Please model this.
Amino acid sequence: MSSLLQRSEKQRVDALNSIGIENLGVSEQFFTPAPVAELMARMLVPENPQLGSIKLLDPGAGTGILTAAVTARLGKVAPGVPVHVTAVEKESAQLPQLRVTLEDCARTHGNFTFEIKKEDFIDLGISAHGIFAEPQTNRFDLCIQNPPYSKLPASDRRSQELKKLGIHVPNIYAAFMALAHKLLKPGGAMISITPRSWYNGPYFAAFRNFLTSTGQITDIHTFESRRKVFADTKILQETIITRTVADPTPVSEIAISTSHAANDPTSVRKVAFSSVFSGNVIFVPTSNRDEQVLQWLSRATSTISDLPFTVSTGKVIDFRSREQTFSQPSPRSVPLIYPANFSRETIHHPQVNLKKPQWFEPTQAGEDKKLIPPGNYVLVKRFSSKEEFRRITAAVWQADTFTALDNKVNFFHSGGHGMNLDTAKGLCIWLNSDRIDHFFRLFSGHTQVNATDLRMLPYPSVAQLQAMARSNMEAEDAIEQVFKSLGES
Ligand SMILES: C[S@@+](CC[C@H](N)C(=O)[O-])C[C@H]1O[C@@H](n2cnc3c(N)ncnc32)[C@H](O)[C@@H]1O
Model:
């Protein structure tokens, strides 16, 4: 006889076939394949769950495969424990398969009841918040979800209502996570498979704060192969599985696991909390080297807001400024710097063999808002090719005249002006270091380096940056030496 999970997998595949792969983008029915559901259920429910009865929430339940996976897991680790499932699904088309799967769960597990709510989970969660908050017994012990991934515009009515509950989210999946998290009993656990995008970046900062101030991340699972996770629905987005608990007591370690695809062997590492969650960014150190780099960098304790400089993007968009750009200098022109003017960690200007015009004529010398005044700046290329050795390439630009910067160049400055030369040189050493490059790759899957990314890096203090600049040692040794001699920033 086939297993509960195999039978629910059949319901899932039937539903996918009737929707048609070509319609999935619109209808958000990227159902979870059985091996991923099984992995999630294993992560959600520990070996010895110590629960007298279980209330399980499955928001955006689809064909019910996630509930089937949890039910199968509970059959092994908590046989006979009463289970009540609340499955929420807004699409009528999924309801027949959902019912078949939940009835199958009831037959297989025995002590199993369920309710199907054909509703929008966001609306339900918003209105249920009051109902579920009191008394706590109405809330859930467990939640398992693969929420829909579409954007939630700020103008959407649901977005406004979520804000009233303290939930600021740019995407439906984060709304599902936040609401479900609020509906957990204290100590309840939730497992979610989502895009990785919420782990960093400013758009999800409020969401990360919300989740980690009211609960904790306990486990993270990543897949080495994007293609294989949702192979039959052809999703290429980088997905991640996160287990959270509704318990704000700090955890010292987080379990990080990785597998090639869902059925492949999983390697699990326990990683210090401080190596995962730092500066309101969630890192996923999957190797010893990753963890060493994060530990090492935790000595740089300044954020950019503590420092006398910030970073912006160059203001010249060349195709919009053609009448102001020239190949030959004129009495009124100033240097125009492109990424192509970088040669390793130095800026060469003018570059005679470049097709790009090397000179810019301001509208009125010195008063053009696109220019930066004379002074010392650190320039960083915004794009690197996959083949390039480093993602971040920084160089000091010592400008004795006004300068125009192409918008494919970021620049560190002090309130729009230049900065102390030693600070600039030290900053350049820091940004070009191997560890910063490794760190950058840990939180960004992109080859693009935006000013917002640079604002999120850890930095040494000004005294440490200046000491790095004055050191006679090789860059990496200089950094090590400065941390040893000048301590933490
Ligand atoms: C990515 S699928 C996952 C389905 C199922 N949980 C699984 O893992 O296979 C998301 C499901 O959420 C449903 N859905 C989308 N928006 C919803 C909403 N606002 N409220 C409730 N369900 C929603 C979709 O119809 C779809 O079945």
Notes: The chain has a mean pLDDT of 89.
